[in-house]
Amino acid sequence: GNSVTQMEGPVTLSEEAFLTINCTYTATGYPSLFWYVQYPGEGLQLLLKATKADDKGSNKGFEATYRKETTSFHLEKGSVQVSDSAVYFCALSDSGRAGSYQLTFGKGTKLSVIP
Amino acid sequence: NAGVTQTPKFRVLKTGQSMTLLCAQDMNHEYMYWYRQDPGMGLRLIHYSVGEGTTAKGEVPDGYNVSRLKKQNFLLGLESAAPSQTSVYFCASSGGVHLSNQPQHFGDGTRLSIL
Predict the structure, then answer these.
(1) CA-to-CA distance for A18 and A38, rounded, in angstroms?
(2) C or N: which end of chain B has fewer Cβ atoms within 10 Å?
(3) pLDDT tens per residue, chain A (115 residues)?
(4) What does the CA dihedral B112, B60, B83, A45 come to, rounded to 10 degrees?
(5) Which of A31, A32, A100 sits opposite B48 (nearest CB)?
(6) How far from A47 is each of A2, A36, A71, A84, B71, CA to CA, in Å?
């Protein structure tokens, strides 16, 4: 079956530090990959996505590249801000049973950025 | 833009009571999903629907029932609540031409406590 493994947190960084959150996956076929962000008390929001090998997703200064050879989709940001404090989820989507396009999530990584 | 709306936002139940969580989406999406989020577990799929009048089991369906009588609504029911069902519940929807790479849109969640 499909699975997503992401680095466990919590991660605490100072403002303007470099961020990497590792994500690796196991899947049959050719999944699409996503990063979602969850701010306190809110639902998940799509941060970025990549749909095929070597695609780079980017948004709000965050980037992640779909690496098929290493089955990875690491999230990076060059300079984090306090407002980036949130929980980040890596996820994959494939057609699943009956074309359900279910998402398989990692367990989430909590990021805290301190001034 | 409403997107995905969940009601109620909070609820406390006693063991054995029943309740229904309502999810409504205004994006004309075909696919709808119910997840539960527990600390350290990420999001786990309870049930999903690939269209009006259809439902299917996800990863953790026991103790829950769902109905999709109208395309825009997806109801999650607990017939006899148990403390193990204390969780935050998220509804999501997705749609579009290329479903495999379409993101899911999430509601803000329902925080449910079973005493």
Answers:
(1) 20
(2) N
(3) 889 999 888 999 999 999 999 999 998 878 889 999 999 888 899 999 998 899 999 999 999 999 999 999 999 999 999 999 999 999 998 765 555 677 889 999 999 999 9
(4) -30
(5) A100
(6) 21, 5, 19, 11, 27
- B26, two tokens: 């205004």
Question: Chain B partners of A94 at a C-beta cutoff of 8 Å?
Answer: 100
Pairwise CB contact (< 8 Å): B31 & A32:
no
Residue carrying the six token digits 């997703």? A57
How is B9-24 classified by DSSP, letter by letter? SEEEE-TT--EEEEEE
Phi-psi region at B96: left, alpha or beta (left = phi > 0; alpha = psi -120 to 50): left
The two structure tokens encoding residue A44: 């998940």
SS3 at position B111 = strand
B73-78 and A19-21 as β-strands: parallel, antiparallel, unpaired?
unpaired
Which residue among A32, A44, A100 places its CB closest to the CB of B106? A44
Q: What type of residue sits at position B72?
A: Q
